[in-house]
Automatic annotation (TrEMBL):
Species, as recorded: Cuscuta epithymum
Stretches assigned to the Myb/SANT-like domain: 1-85
Stated name of the protein: Myb/SANT-like domain-containing protein
InterPro entries: At2g29880-like, Myb/SANT-like_dom
Length: 117
């Protein structure tokens, strides 16, 4: 999906069409993974990726004081900022200590990030 974004396969709304997914993306996934993936499976994974990205982006978009450390793949903030955020988002407590290795790719694939490279 990141590669598709880098190749400019999205339409003007930022969506990769079903035809594009079936003709360009799914064959590459089959080659890489070694088994066939249906369009429905692709949509299911896309929904999951969007939910993951939504959790990450909510943290970054709506809360000043948060940052991203690309070298450690972790979200950063002061103790006070984390404490305030986790009062109303207890379900995101894992983001404080876990690495998020896919954040940058998700930003490109399902977020509004720009593909570079």
């Amino acid at each position: 999906m990141v590669e598709s974004a880098k190749l400019g396969l999205r339409d003007i709304n930022g969506v990769i069409s079903k035809q594009m997914v079936e003709t360009r993306l799914l064959p590459k996934l089959k080659e890489k993974l070694g088994y066939e993936i249906s369009f429905n499976h692709y949509q299911s994974r896309l929904k999951w990726f969007k939910k993951q990205y939504s959790n990450y982006s909510q943290l970054m978009r709506h809360n000043s004081g948060f940052g991203w450390d690309a070298s450690t793949k972790k979200f950063t903030a002061s103790e006070e900022v984390w404490a305030d955020y986790l009062k109303s988002h207890k379900e995101h407590a894992h983001l404080r200590s876990e690495t998020c290795p896919d954040y940058e790719d998700l930003r490109i694939a399902v977020g509004n990030g720009t593909a570079t490279g």
